[in-house]
Amino acid sequence: MTTTELPVLRWGIVGCGLISSWFVGDLCLPDRPGANTKHIVQAVASSSKSKGSAFVSKHCPSEKPTIYDSYQDLYNDPNVDVVYVGTPHTVHLQNTLDAIAAGKHVLCEKPIAVNARDAKKMIEAAREKGVFLMEALWTRFFPITTKLHSLLYEEKVIGDIATVFVDFGLNMPIGKADPQARVASKSLGAGALLDIGIYSMTWASLILDKSPHRQAEESPSINATMTFHDETLNAAERIDEQVTAVLKYPDIKAQAVCSASLLYKGREEFARIEGSKGSIAIGGLAPSKPGYLVIRIQDQEEKRLDFEVPGFGFHYEADAVAKDIRAGRLENEVCSWSDTLTIMSRLDAIRSACGLTYSQDG
Ligand SMILES: NC(=O)C1=CN([C@@H]2O[C@H](COP(=O)(O)OP(=O)(O)OC[C@H]3O[C@@H](n4cnc5c(N)ncnc54)[C@H](OP(=O)(O)O)[C@@H]3O)[C@@H](O)[C@H]2O)C=CC1
Ligand SMILES: O=C1OC[C@@H](O)[C@H](O)[C@H]1O
């Protein structure tokens, strides 16, 4: 099918910051192999029209979106099918609830909210209004994750899985960032766990929660530790710069060691799954954007599988959203409401164990 014959989905982009620029770039990629949808940037909303116009000229010059200086005006636009929320964590709740109230489907950036309680509110609102809602945990949608699952559980190439190690290191110390930026401002949700630890936890979940041997009702136990940018501050003021969580899954005799740090750039091979017969490493530009697998089996030559990704890879989640909306589904099966709540509850548990709060926790 040529691009012009594909069904269309019209996006309204809320917030013209970094992630929205990456996302629209992928929506506009021409002639993607396997594309199921022609994505249109129908509208953008920003704090000012000039910022919105500059964003469009730079990041999606081939599109002719309506530019709003009010998020609400975008939610009210009858030509917008789905709203993409690309704002800081702490405003996801309000932005998403407003979009849903206006009857829009929503794809909301990660973390969907600051805590599981707020995530539940968003899910309940979507359920009641009968609209689609998904957290933009884009990593789940890369073809590499499906291949990994099949290597682990269908081909069983490394035998019984014992330990998963995942590390997301980003050289972005709090002290070096602009204090007003969302990565350094506590009121905008700054901190390693919510920003990048969520990916380490997602990989562990993708690998171990999806084991066919799991007994779903048994949640893993979690032990965690954090270091803070300023250790002298109280729970409400401090910002986590490093975090490590150890998850124990007694039912499958497995464990995961998940870490995240803003103090160094992590290794390209960011994850390793150890099994009774060997290991599989996952590598890529970042743990959010995986690119290859390395299979190492005892007494065998190691094997590397590379996965070509056009653009950043945000189109995989965008295509999944489009397919669900067309089918009338309210949630996605790869990033279900239950998946989102599982991870958010674990992030809550880690924060509670380490003494880290946000004002949203109430
Ligand atoms: N999936 C991924 O790989 C990534 C995801 N993210 C996620 O995306 C979200 C946004 O991150 P990022 O794009 O880096 O952030 P930026 O600060 O670059 O952009 C956020 C935009 O949100 C808007 N905004 C709305 N309310 C506020 C507010 N109170 N304070 C500041 N800005 C506000 C602004 O747009 P305007 O002025 O136009 O209204 C701002 O430019 C985060 O939740 C983050 O976790 C971020 C990076 C990568
Ligand atoms: O989601 C993310 O992934 C990549 C990081 O650069 C960014 O801070 C984070 O929000």
UniProtKB/TrEMBL annotation:
MF (Gene Ontology): D-xylose 1-dehydrogenase (NADP+) activity; nucleotide binding
E.C. numbers: 1.1.1.179
Keyword terms, alphabetized: Oxidoreductase
Entry keyword annotation includes Oxidoreductase: yes
The Gfo/Idh/MocA-like oxidoreductase N-terminal domain, residue ranges: 9-135
Enzyme class: oxidoreductase
A Pfam family this chain is assigned to: GFO_IDH_MocA_C3
Ranges of residues in domain GFO/IDH/MocA-like oxidoreductase: 153-280
Catalytic activity: D-xylose + NADP(+) = D-xylono-1,5-lactone + NADPH + H(+)
Signal peptide: none
Record-stated family: Belongs to the Gfo/Idh/MocA family.
Protein name: D-xylose 1-dehydrogenase (NADP(+), D-xylono-1,5-lactone-forming)
Organism of this sequence: Aaosphaeria arxii CBS 175.79
Lineage: Eukaryota, Fungi, Dikarya, Ascomycota, Pezizomycotina
